TrEMBL record:
(6S)-NADPHX binds at residues 58-62, 119-125, 130, 148, 247, 306, 355, 422. GO terms for biological process: metabolite repair; nicotinamide nucleotide metabolic process. Its EC number is 4.2.1.136, 5.1.99.6. PANTHER family: ATP-DEPENDENT (S)-NAD(P)H-HYDRATE DEHYDRATASE (PTHR12592:SF0), ATP-DEPENDENT (S)-NAD(P)H-HYDRATE DEHYDRATASE FAMILY MEMBER (PTHR12592). CDD domains: YXKO-related (cd01171). GO terms for molecular function: ADP-dependent NAD(P)H-hydrate dehydratase activity; ATP binding; kinase activity; metal ion binding; NAD(P)HX epimerase activity. Gene3D superfamilies: 3.40.1190.20, YjeF N-terminal domain. Pfam families: Carb_kinase, YjeF_N. It catalyses: (6R)-NADHX = (6S)-NADHX; (6S)-NADPHX + ADP = AMP + phosphate + NADPH + H(+); (6S)-NADHX + ADP = AMP + phosphate + NADH + H(+); (6R)-NADPHX = (6S)-NADPHX. Binds 1 potassium ion per subunit. This is Bifunctional NAD(P)H-hydrate repair enzyme.
């Protein structure tokens, strides 16, 4: 399990650790780790040009001490001092090692830029001249290494409020910060390298976690010798309409590939006919009236892809949500639920799987605001609606009350194409039917779906059916890791 922490959590742990160590020890450890990563990135330190962007706090101090170490190894290091003050002892050590102070031109001629403007002490958008220096670093040809977090990225949330450094590498001290795992911040961090400064024993329960392949392998059910299709779990899929048939085909495909014992599809005439011809394995029921009464027993329902949003769809949704098994609410069913919240009044679990636009309708926040603050909005929606929320997008976020948010970054932007969300709904539903709770089903499904996207894309466009077809290979890969 990967873990990450807010700035406040890190600060508290640092205070506890610092109380037991001679002053300055942690910064020395941080700077040594930072210099080592810079040296590896440079390949040859002697004769290379390094520019330090130095803010007024300890983040700047880290950069100066690391700059001193690089200068002693023969690098030509130039520091741009951005703050109204500068870390005093760091600057002394830096100048003593042969480092120089320079203007912004240093950034343009550097092989490597070290971003030590701000770290976990930052508040709000970067102010000038920090913002201008961040833009200069982004425009320069040099490799950029961020200290602790890319300046301009909020360490606790991943928010980016204005200019922000786009790093190729982020050297983070003590423990990963939440903002390095969640977009838009994660996209600015590049490869994250952790420097162990001894914080481990002082860290609290994490703010967010991310499953590794091995974690997913541990959670995934495997058929036992005595398994049969019913014991493995039957997933019901209420999807598609005479207008939209493809969504049902894709959701059923995702569910079949993710290990359901059986997939039962219910819907109108056209989607049922499509599902029947695509997937002879699925058991289909054409609904004569908008109700699932009399359709066989299932262990979980997927509700919504392509279902439509009219009166017929509303009745189907009410009927599915009146059942006593977990229900995944996706796509059109999210629209129905946002119009009529009373549909969610039930005792069995609910997993909702919106993208930012759908979440915006559900909780009444703006779409851009949700994209900017994915964590807080997913958390707020989970609390407000009393459900598990899987928020789709460039980093998928799974939130449930009283549990750390799980984030997933296995995906690829090639997944941003029509129908991949329907596949995700099918995969998640199959895992629910196999007995995983909403939180585990959603986070395992997001991991496998992202990985399947990478396998299917392999650097070129994919279509949603390819993603479903790659789910078994994704499952094999997580088992190899486990
Ligand atoms: N506390 C510790 O023991 C350790 C701290 N470390 C480093 O120290 C950093 C935290 O240092 P600080 O608490 O001094 O804080 P920072 O260095 O992150 O930021 C504080 C400074 O930035 C300015 N500032 C804040 N927001 C700004 C904005 N939006 N625009 C422009 N300027 C802004 C403040 O006025 C202040 O001068 C960590 O990120 C890490 O790099 C590491 O050396 C490890 C040990
Ligand atoms: N930029 C991106 N990077 C990674 N994954 C993405 C990105 N954009 C979308 N996705 C993923 O692609 C899928 C799209 O789902 P959705 O928006 O419901 O599309 P549709 O309704 O067409 O199926 C989700 O799993 C989402 O997380
Ligand atoms: K920084």
């Amino acid at each position: 399990m990967r873990t990450a922490y807010t700035a406040d959590q890190i600060r508290a742990a640092e205070h506890a650790l610092m109380a037991r160590l001679p002053e300055g020890t942690l910064m020395q450890r941080a700077a040594a780790g930072l210099a080592a990563v810079c040296a590896t990135a440079l390949g040859r330190v002697y004769g290379s040009r390094v520019a330090l962007l130095v803010g007024g706090g300890d983040n700047g101090g880290d950069a100066l001490y690391a700059g001193a170490l690089l200068a002693r190894r023969g690098a030509r290091v130039e520091a741009v001092l951005a703050g109204s003050r500068t870390h005093e002892r760091g600057l002394e050590a830096y100048l003593l090692a042969g480092g120089r102070v320079a203007g912004v031109m240093a950034v343009e001629r550097a092989d490597l830029v070290v971003d030590g403007l701000v770290g976990i002490g930052a508040t709000g958008a970067l102010r000038e001249p920090y913002a201008e220096l961040a833009r200069a670093a982004n425009a320069a040809p040099a490799l950029t290494v961020a200290v602790d977090v890319p300046s301009g990225v909020d360490a606790s949330s991943g928010r980016v409020a204005g200019a922000a450094v786009e790093a190729q590498i982020t050297v983070t001290m003590g423990a990963p910060k939440t903002g390095l795992l969640v977009d838009p911040g994660a996209a600015r961090a590049g490869a994250v390298e952790l420097v162990d400064i001894g914080l481990g024993p002082y860290l609290p329960a994490p703010d967010v976690t991310a499953l590794t392949g091995a974690d997913v392998a541990d959670l995934l059910p495997r058929p036992a010798t005595e398994s049969d299709k019913y014991r493995r779990g039957v997933v019901g899929i209420a999807a598609g309409s005479d207008l939209y048939t493809g969504a049902a085909v894709l959701a059923v495909g995702g569910a079949l590939r993710a290990g359901a014992g059986m997939v039962r599809h219910v819907g109108q005439h056209a989607p049922v006919a499509q599902v029947r011809s695509h997937w002879p394995e699925a058991v289909v029921t054409e609904l004569e009236r908008p109700s699932i009464d009399g359709v066989g027993r299932v262990q979980a329902w997927v509700l919504g892809p392509g279902l439509g949003t009219g009166a017929w769809a509303h009745e189907v949704a009410a009927s599915v949500l009146a059942s006593d098994v977990p229900v995944l609410v996706d796509a059109d069913a999210l629209t129905l639920v946002s119009r009529d919240r009373s549909l969610l009044r039930r005792t069995a679990p609910v997993l909702v799987t919106p993208h930012a636009g759908e979440l915006s309708r559900l909780i009444g926040a703006g779409r851009a605001e949700i994209e900017a603050g994915r964590l807080e909005h997913a958390r707020a929606a989970a609390a407000e609606l009393g459900v598990t929320v899987l928020l789709k997008g460039s980093t998928t976020v799974v939130a449930e009350a009283d549990r750390p948010v799980r984030v997933n970054a296995t995906g690829t932007s090639w997944l941003a194409t029509g129908g991949t969300g329907d596949v995700l709904a099918g995969v998640s539903g199959a895992l629910l039917a196999q007995g995983l709770d909403c939180y585990d089903a959603a986070s395992c499904a997001a991991h496998l779906h992202g990985l399947a996207g990478r396998i299917a894309a392999d650097g070129a466009p994919l279509n949603a059916a390819d993603v479903a077809a790659a789910i078994p290979e994704a499952i094999r890969r997580v088992h190899d890791e486990g």
